[in-house]
Write a structure and sequence with these properties.
The protein has a single domain, classed as Porin (Beta Barrel). Helices cover 7% and strands 66% of the residues. The chain is built from 1 helix and 8 strands. The protein has one helix at residues 127-135, and strands at 3-18, 21-33, 38-50, 54-64, 70-80, 83-92, 104-112, 117-123. It is elongated.
Length: 136
């Protein structure tokens, strides 16, 4: 696993309504913890919440380590109810974290709306691929 992100939603903005659903912006902050780095995590996610309970999302994140390394992450995916999945791509100028450049991460996450908390797990490869490789 590349990282586990635990974050709290700081602001929710309902941007628009349509016959298809609503567009909502979530701003959140928290911490990313992985085997190779830890960082503060800031994120903005735009969600198109559809009338059938499914959604599509796009996110932009920034992580900053205590050493001052900055990592930019962009992603998109889908979800239903409080669960979501998708892909993210990393970018950094940090020599220490340059292994992240162009890394594609596969994520799964869940949100506790009442507790205002989200947990996201990021893998460097899809879980199905990792499971299939382990079985060979």
């Amino acid at each position: 696993m590349l990282a586990e992100i635990k974050e709290k939603t700081d602001a929710v903005i309902i941007k628009e309504f349509s016959s298809d659903g609503a567009t909502i912006e979530y701003n959140s902050s928290g911490e990313a913890k992985g085997d190779k780095y830890r960082a503060s995590h800031l994120e903005t996610t735009d969600v198109k919440m559809k009338m059938d309970g499914t959604n599509e999302w796009e996110s932009r994140s920034m992580e900053i380590t205590k050493e001052g390394d900055v990592v930019m992450i962009s992603g998109k995916g889908t979800g239903k109810a409080n669960n979501f999945s998708g892909e993210v791509t990393y970018m950094t100028n940090s020599p220490r974290l340059n292994w992240l450049n162009n890394t594609k991460g596969y994520i799964e996450g869940s949100t506790d709306i009442k507790g205002n908390e989200t947990t996201i797990k990021v893998w460097a490869e899809k879980k199905e691929e990792a499971t299939a490789a382990a079985m060979m």
